[in-house]
Write a structure and sequence with these properties.
Blueprint: H1 19-27, E1 46-51, E2 57-64, H2 67-86, E3 96-103, E4 112-118, E5 124-131, H3 134-146, E6 153-156, E7 159-163, E8 168-169, H4 170-176, H5 185-202, E9 212-218, E10 223-229, H6 253-262, H7 265-285, H8 287-296, H9 305-318, H10 330-346
Antiparallel strand pairs: 1-2, 3-4, 4-5, 5-7, 6-7, 8-9, 9-10
Length: 347
Amino acid sequence: MMHDDVKISRKKPTYAVDAGLLKYLKLYQRDARLPIQYKDLLDFDETVPVYDKHGQDTYWESPLYPQHLLEQLHAKLKVVYAELKASGNTRIVEHKVVERIEYCAFGNTRPFRIKIVNRLNDVYDYFYIKQADASRILGLELEEIISPNQVSYILDRETLVEEHIVGIPGDTFSKTSMRHIDYNQTRIAKEFVKFNERCIISLLGDMRAYNFVMQITPDFDDFQFRIRAIDFDQQFYEGNPKVYMPQFFKENFPYVKLSMEYLTDRTVQQYQQEERSSIVHRVRSERHRIKDLRDASRDQLVSTPENIERLKNGYAEFYQNNAYHKCKTMIDIVELNVKNVIRQVQL
């Protein structure tokens, strides 16, 4: 595996969801009617910074709302949580309270993070409210179809609600836990290779270590590892192919270094092939859904003509395949990636 330092050209614009994609989301029950919109949460007076337990700035802020709005906001946010988790069944929030609302002006979609707590046992959960962005939504859908992970989110007009994805932030894991004596280093390296392959195929960009989490599951004689993306803001927007290859970000060098220590070229190729086979299996089982997604997003704007042109030429060179030159959209490139994987697995 190689290491480089990739730069994101500029902040990606937010793309409105068009009629075709909206129809798809309704078909697959991703739409909802919510009692609150993203813009309603912007009605705060000021914010105060949020620091972690070590006193470091988290880049999140706590909005300060007028008291007369706060109770209404909390009641409506509990309904949103019920919609996300239980198709609107508000019985699940009978003993829950909204403990905290946080805001991040740093992210592309300027998200709000909501902490909700069960009063009976202090068990808590988070969810996010963001500006709707078509490329992000397509990324969430591709994650559902192509990756081994399930994602929960709902859309209401310009408002996107997402579940919290549990795990250790990738940068924290590499600094504090990666070399743990009980962890099989080869398993971690193997998972990074597979994650890298999924990003290349699905055009999930900017997967620097702080944009994914490591999930660790104890097995009967070892630990299993799964890398999960938590940020889909850079889903097929950039024209540089390396943006979709986590191995080239300097923040991921600990994972690249680990792979170079514990894997050979032959085992890297083996794990890439394993992941491609898994993707083929998932795509075949979801063939109707992926066709519907492709058809729904044909005219959906998610990038610039210049970026599409640069990326298709880059992928044509990367895969030594001139068929990429015929692609007209980012979705075309993803579709060709999947077709190529199917052909490789069948060989």
